[in-house]
Amino acid sequence: MKKLIKGAIFDLDGVILDSMSIWDKAGEMFLLHSGIDSEPGLSKVLSCMSMTEGAVFLKDKYSLNMDVDEIIAGINHTIEDFYFCRVQLKENVEPFLKGMQQAGIKIAAATSCDRQVFEKALKRLKVINYFDKIFTCTEIGSGKDKPHIYLAAAEHLGTLPKDTWVFEDALHAIKTAKDAGFRTVAVFDASTIEDINQIKKISDIYIEKLDDIDDILKKAFL
User: CA triplet 132, 162, 182: central angle to 5 degrees?
Assistant: First the structure.
């Protein structure tokens, strides 16, 4: 097992946390609270951006009389209650992470979500200690349309991209990781259903949920 997977990088929203439903409307909810109706498809536009990039986009697109930090704080405030009190793990997440840890595989996370939002959720759900380190797009300075966050995580783990598996649900993120030389495991989430055929085509492994590690290993040899 260790020869095949030396390190693993997990997306949080849509892979670890069953949270994409809130992100599908976070931008719209924030604008609505500001008295602004958003254009259709806003969530898809924002999906590949970091929080900072998304805030800059919203400020320019909707001529918001707020600075970027205020916009980020407003979006985070919109979704905080969901993360702090209600969000749940996706199916089989905790035993899967435990199995990887027991196998001696180094684990990191890479997320577009801001730290102040997800940390309380991961602590409440008792999975935060499985991750050696959690990287955010905001702190890295770019979204998942660029490989910087994955490369930073692999560097921290001390593993080469070819020995590091990236678990993602979104097409653009899978594509970025694969183009950077990582092995990719696509995990199904309902929010990505319209891209499902492309996701299956470009990912090294496609799974409906996080199954046991032995199952992932078997699929890797197919």
Answer: 75
Q: Could you report the per-residue pLDDT of 83-108, keeping only the tens digit for each?
A: 998 899 999 999 999 999 988 899 99
pLDDT tens digit sequence for 17-63? 999 888 777 777 788 778 888 887 787 788 777 788 888 998 998 88
| Same domain? 81 vs 102 | no
Task: Kindly tell me the number of DSSP H helices and DSSP E strands found in the chain.
Answer: 11, 6
- Kindly state whether residues 134 and 211 are assigned to the same domain: yes
- Domain of 34, in residue numbers: 20-86
What does the alpha-carbon distance between residue 118 and residue 123 come to, in Å, rounded to a whole number?
9
Environment class of 58 (CB within 10 Å of its CB; exposed 0-12, middle 13-18, buried 19+): buried
Provide the 3-class DSSP secondary structure of residue 103.
Answer: coil
Smallest CA-to-CA distance from 133 within 151, 99, 114, 157 is with 157
Please indicate, yes or no, if residue 1 is contained in any of the structural domains.
no
Where do runs of H (alpha helix) occur along the chain? 20-33, 42-46, 51-61, 68-81, 93-102, 115-124, 137-140, 148-157, 171-179, 196-202, 213-220
Q: Which two tokens stand for residue 168?
A: 């993602």
The domain tally of the chain equals 2
